[in-house]
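Quick one: structure tokens for this chain, please?
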Amino acid sequence: MKRRTQYSKPLPRLETPLVRQGGELRPASWEDALDLVAAKFSLTLQEYGPDAFGLFSCSKSTNEMNYAAQKFMRTAIGSNNIDSCNRT
């Protein structure tokens, strides 16, 4: 019989996104959180260029999902830094 420890109990799941503001995490709406991510993507792209981004996809994803991910990286971001674990 397996012994339950404090580490085997699942942690409560987040139900709303959290954004860091002034060093503290605060709840935000999905729209605000996605707007923040889009703004940070744009800022990073402008400051460091497309080679600052990379994508690692999973072989357990569907071909369609991997195709969409690599297409996003190549067209929207402009980066060819794409890899996957298909070799395993």
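Residues 30-48 form the longest helix (19 residues).
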